[in-house]
Amino acid sequence: MPIQAIRTQRLYRQIADQLRQLIERGEFPPGTLLPPERELAQALGVSRASVREALIALEVVGQVEVRVGHGVVVLEPKSSSVLPVMSQAARQQPWALDPEFSDETALDFEEEIPPYALLQARRHVEPEAAALAAEHVTPEALESIREAFTRNVEDNHRVQKRGGGGRPHSHAGDRLFHMRIAEASGNPAYALLIKHLLGHQYGVMFRRLQDLYMTTDMSDRSQEDHQRILDALIAKDANAARAAMADHLDYVLETFFAEAE
Amino acid sequence: MPIQAIRTQRLYRQIADQLRQLIERGEFPPGTLLPPERELAQALGVSRASVREALIALEVVGQVEVRVGHGVVVLEPKSSSVLPVMSQAARQQPWALDPEFSDETALDFEEEIPPYALLQARRHVEPEAAALAAEHVTPEALESIREAFTRNVEDNHRVQKRGGGGRPHSHAGDRLFHMRIAEASGNPAYALLIKHLLGHQYGVMFRRLQDLYMTTDMSDRSQEDHQRILDALIAKDANAARAAMADHLDYVLETFFAEAE
DNA sequence: AATTGCCAATGGCCTGACCTTTAAACGATA
DNA sequence: TATCGTTTAAAGGTCAGGCCATTGGCAATT
Fold this sequence. Notes:
2 copies of one chain form a homodimer. In chain A, 65% of the residues lie in helices and 3% in strands.
């Protein structure tokens, strides 16, 4: 016989479980009120504090709603699909999504980072990643970079053929190019960093940069820059790769800020 | 003038929300312990019962784990919990919604990055962030950095008093120190990068580094380094800050790799 | 009929106490 | 020296009782 792990469940869990069973059994149909906290405490032979903890647990998962001065209302068992609690939680905890309550939270991952800050960071990180890549790049990695380069060239071609009125230019090739260089550095941390930096340039503020990309010779110049970087990687010349990447980003920075003022 | 609806949040929600923010800000990284209930209650100016209710709410949502007689452990932000999985995913990889960028560049973020790679990247990024911070730091930011420094000193003290057999050393103070400097740089991108780098040093491989921290004079030396960095920031000396941060990380790298071979 | 005032019921929160569990620290012992 | 109980401080678990704030129905008032 397998050993039965005896676990002294914390009281609030036991109470919450029991209440949940009673609710599901129909003892307290949706819409009705649970007995008052004081009664529950006495009936269960526990303190009111424990009952309150149990009720809060049930409230957090959206099974009941506590109304001050009124009572504890049993809620409808909402869509018990894969993400039942999601909608429930969102409804029951407006503060979870309410911007008013996320003030100063610095939800650092959603925060929109200004283009200049992003580019400044990339300007600092990517040349080093490129230098590392020149030293550590494998033939396969080089091939994947070359492929990204080609794709970027195609992207640029497409945009020029269509003129300014085409669909928004896809920067997938460009992103892929930078991303794969970072991966080729052999240091996954650099790849992580650059991936995050690239991932944050989807904010509205980047529309300007993207517009610039099409209304200037930026794409041509970028392509030349990319070619230089690629050559340096092929030559496994760390210094050249670092310099080429730095020049490239300097150019982007300059272009952006020349127009931005 | 429209009437402003007064919304008296129940106390446990305010507390839970605040704790959640602190956790997300990095004050209490995953794996560390929250302050004892009694301390929290006193610090927040509320009763212990309310703190407990908040902790239960956080526990139900899978953000913390309460261990009897031990403390409240901060958990990894797992999407397996009751938390809204979608928004969680989107929060961590904003570009996940862009189909053009989702191809092949799968560098999953759960991947464990080797300590050396992590430290190398930090070695490259943090000195620059420190230099920027020296130029842009505000009095409030400086105060928050000083507070993190103090906390780190306390952490070290605690570990020394207990000797080698003490409980695992909390690096919360150290993390905070580095993170707040990044935030003080005025460039949110640097803060983002460093936050992610720090967030990855919880893998098993870092146990060695953490052990070293206690079995050598690393904590003393680190503390001196931190002091130098702090002084440079106070003096608003960018070059000194950059150098101090670089020296600090060089020391950590050296120590780790002298022992690691 | 509408408004106002009252009040019992109910949840919200606090204080302070005591118990149980955990794990570090300590000794005793082999 | 290493191992194994014992001790003990710290942390969570629970309880009792009290006071406050809100709600909602009912009665008194206009």
